[in-house]
Write a structure and sequence with these properties.
It contains 9 helices and 7 strands; from the N terminus they run H-H-H-H-E-H-E-H-E-E-H-E-H-E-E-H. It is α/β, with parallel strands linked by helices and 237 residues long. It has one domain: 3-Layer(aba) Sandwich (Rossmann fold). It has a 7-stranded mixed β-sheet with strand order 3-2-1-4-5-7-6, sandwiched between helices. The chain is globular.
Length: 237
């Protein structure tokens, strides 16, 4: 067992099985050239992927979630890590690129996860996921306004959207607020986090679904990024 991984698991209160599953994930990411990440050094994978994912457990809605959707799952972070940490939760990893979906499927098998599934489609096209999720997560995928628009239709009433972000950006946050107001969400918390020693300027943006998402959402695939909802006076992209 990697001692750094063990320390991270202890910090976040993972059960032994979950820690073992993360060890298998670590081994796969480090050794598999097809893993869709540039990180290969074990300590970097632990800090920048695994610990960074586990910090989401500091949000009560995440630690108590029954069904989670991870949007733009990529190499499987934070979705795979949350699935290992929360065996009672059902985690759907939503990813549109086939090669990334294939890696996530491989990782689920290697880890022995029984509570995770790959949804190989765009978030806007996942119609069976609409209003079914307690929590939606997204990490390093798109600007806040785009992510909010992706997440809102998938959340059930009272659900929570958590976006992993770095340094704060006033314009991005203003655009996120506009998108939230349009889709039935509201910012509940902006939490600075330090997943590993030396981490700086990392934040979790936590939105609560406070109203119904209008039927016009989700818009057609690609529209949220091509014509994003923005604060007054800021042009559409």
């Amino acid at each position: 067992m990697n001692s750094r991984l063990w320390a991270v698991s202890e910090r976040f209160g993972l059960a032994e099985e979950g820690t073992d599953q993360l060890q298998r994930l670590l081994a796969l990411v480090v050794s598999d050239p097809a893993a869709p990440t540039t990180l290969r050094a074990p300590d970097e994978v632990i800090d920048l992927h695994i610990a960074d994912a586990l910090v989401g457990l500091e949000v009560d809605a995440v630690s108590g979630a029954g069904r989670i959707a991870d949007l733009g799952a990529g190499a499987g972070f934070p979705g795979l890590v949350l699935a290992a940490a929360l065996p009672a939760a059902r985690v759907s990893l939503v990813e549109s690129q086939g090669r990334k979906c294939a890696f996530i499927e491989r990782a689920i098998g290697e880890m022995g996860l029984t509570n995770a599934q790959v949804v190989c489609t765009r978030a806007e096209s996942w119609t069976s996921g609409v209003e079914t999720c307690d929590v939606v997560t997204a990490r390093a995928v798109a600007p806040l306004n785009v992510l909010v628009e992706y997440a809102a239709p998938l959340l059930s009433e009272g659900g929570t959207f958590v976006a992993w972000k770095g340094r704060r950006n006033e314009d991005e946050e203003a655009d996120g607020a506009v998108a939230a107001a349009a889709t039935g969400l509201a910012l509940a918390e902006l939490r600075p986090v330090r997943p590993w020693d030396g981490a700086q300027n990392l934040h979790l943006h936590v939105y609560l679904k406070v109203g119904a998402t209008p039927n016009r959402f989700p818009r057609r695939a690609g529209t949220a990024s091509k014509r994003p909802l923005r604060a007054l006076g800021r042009r559409f992209g």
